[in-house]
């Protein structure tokens, strides 16, 4: 089969032939139906040796929808034939955060003593879904998607899940009175606008320099969309600002939008630095957080929102052979919504 593989650090990925894996033990074998491309893949590809504790070669792809076509001898064979989306946080299931249902903060996924980042899951340390087939170690890491189209289901695994977890963990500030701001209406941000609506958010502002992204935000339920954070009316300040860009420019400007008791939630990995302190002019009660991905229960929740028609993924499908070209477009910001490869 074909797979999009990283063979050397700092080198572009390649489409290469690999053997179809055989499921062992409790593993499931998926025929991949769709797999999303993510900016995190670019971070992995661009990294010099020594940043990630991942063995190479590695098949990329951490946003995967597929059909279970085989199981190992210790797995439940009733999974065969099911359409699923893969939960890409391959947590230990046993540490105190896993036992609390916070498996996206599993202790086994913490930075290594030598500073290296550990393997997380498919495409991020283990062979992922930018291939015709992939192995999932256990049924704990799949969620049924029923009749959802694969191109819509795949982005639920990261783009929607990450946005949902960021919003759900700040849900005490999302109500009919709330003012929420979504910075960056790309793969995650366009889903965040819809999730805020679905969870009963009051005023939702969106920010994106691209006119087509602002139009998308308005179509998906934003009250107003701005080209620049500085243009947002600041009458009361925002209760919660979700920064899906995370650059120096956005994070610092976003912090200035907060009202009393407001929270800045930094989701994007744009390399921004923010200096915070109690005497730096931020409003009383400010909070800053940087949530990571989401839990399996969050993934079940976004699948449910999609089934109820409350979450529609803006995605474009491409061929697996075109992966390298699409990564280039993603790097240039030339993808609207989410790019999905269909093997
Ligand atoms: Zn991602
Ligand atoms: Zn754990």
Our measurement of the CA-to-CA distance between the termini, rounded to an integer number of angstroms, reads 10 Å
Counting DSSP E segments of at least 2 residues, the number of strands comes to: 18
Number of domains: 2
* CATH homologous superfamily classification of the largest domain: Medium-chain alcohol dehydrogenases, catalytic domain
State the CATH class of the largest domain. Answer: Alpha Beta
| Overall SS class | alpha/beta
Number of helices: 9
> Architecture of the largest domain, CATH level 2?
Alpha-Beta Complex
As a whole number of angstroms, the C-alpha radius of gyration is 20 Å
Could you say what the CATH topology of the largest domain is called? Answer: Quinone Oxidoreductase, Chain A, domain 1
Principal-axis shape equals globular
Mean pLDDT: 95
Portion of residues within helices = 10-25%
Describe the largest sheet. 7 strands, mixed
Unreliable segments of 5+ consecutive residues: none
Distinct compounds present: zinc ion
Order of helices and strands: EEEHEEEHEEEEHHEHEHEEHEEHEHE
Q: Any descriptors?
A:
seven-stranded mixed sheet, single chain, six-stranded parallel sheet, Quinone Oxidoreductase, Chain A, domain 1, Rossmann fold, 2 domains, 343 residues, alpha/beta, binds zinc ion, globular, 9 helices, 24% strand
